[in-house]
Amino acid sequence: MKFVKNFNNNAALVEDDQQTEWIVIGKGVGFGKHRGDEIDLAKIERRFKAADQEETVLNTATQLSPEIVEVVNRVEKLVKDQLSRSFTDYQYLSLADHIDFAIKRTRDGINLDSATVSWETNRLFPKEYAVAKEALMLINGMTGAGLDEGEAVMLTQHFVNLESNGTTIQDTMKISRLIKGIIDIVQYQYQIQLDPDSFNFTRFIGHLRAFMIRQLTNSKVNGQALDQSLMMVIQEKYPDAVACVDRIAVFLKNQMGWDLSPDERVFLILHVWRVTNYQEEQ
Fold it and tell me: How far, in Å, are 10, 53, 96, 147, 223 from residue 101 at the CA level?
């Protein structure tokens, strides 16, 4: 790879043998280089194809400090090891930008109170939240920034978003808010507290997330529609779950303008029945 220009000592524009331009990041990767000089590949910690990135993304990539790059690389490895998930270039830069801003904000004495949201996040996404808390300890240990425990909530959203193809962090936060609203409806309707550690609760959350991602990305489920007679049997057999799903349908319509298809109603009725029937047997 040959040097084209410097953004700073730690970020440079380079060109490969096929004349494709890349933004490369690494400590001292562009220091003292002139156009046409060979780049030390060992110094490159992350690379992004310049033509594929938006201007705001490029700005983030070129302004990252070596400290942040090292921290994000460690967090990325942690997530891959613990959750078996990988970051796209955009997701990597989004996380880097968040961590960088969180550190700057904390050093300026500005902390966000996320105690209530923290409990909800832990309940909805326990695996991701556990890794987020570990990542927070790693960030504080490497930087001495003293980030508040509430930052684990935002890190959780980033980690959840790795499995949400075509959605943004804002979408993931919206999904979390909607799922909380639906959980509240179910618990109120049945006058119970759902067990967040149960298998049925995990399946229920997974179903809701998948449905919401399809709605946000305008995706459709392939396959034949359910038989109408089956729908009628299910609605007759589970009247309480039907009433609960009716409330959920109104909630989704009011909040997002979404309409439940007949098939989606049936699957949601079954999930509501499973998650509440298990609770009532305890």
Answer: 18, 20, 9, 11, 45
pLDDT tens-digit map of 158-189: 898 887 666 677 888 888 889 999 999 999 99
Note whether 135 and 155 are within 8 A (CB): yes
**Domains detected in the chain:** 2-52 (2.30.24.10), 66-161 (1.10.1790.10), 169-281 (1.10.1790.10)
pLDDT, tens digit (0-9, with 9 covering 90-100), for 233-274: 888 889 999 999 999 999 999 999 999 988 888 889 999 999
The pLDDT score that the predictor gives to residue 51 is 75
- Chain CA centroid to CA 13, Å: 29
Direct distance between the N- and C-terminal alpha carbons of the chain, in angstroms, rounded to an integer: 64
Nearest to 208 by CA among 124, 137, 149: 124
**Structural tokens at position 108:** 């300026």
Q: Residue 129 burial by CB count (10 A; 0-12/13-18/19+): exposed, middle or buried? A: buried
Give the integer Cα–Cα distance in Å for 234 and 230: 6
Token pair of 145 as six digits? 């920034």
Question: Taking the model in full, what pTM does it have?
Answer: 0.68
The DSSP-derived string for 69-134 is: HHHHHHHHHHHHHHH-----HHHHHHHHHHHHHHHHHHHTT-----HHHHHHHHHH-HHHHHHHHH
Whole-angstrom Cα distance, residue 153 to residue 119?
A: 9
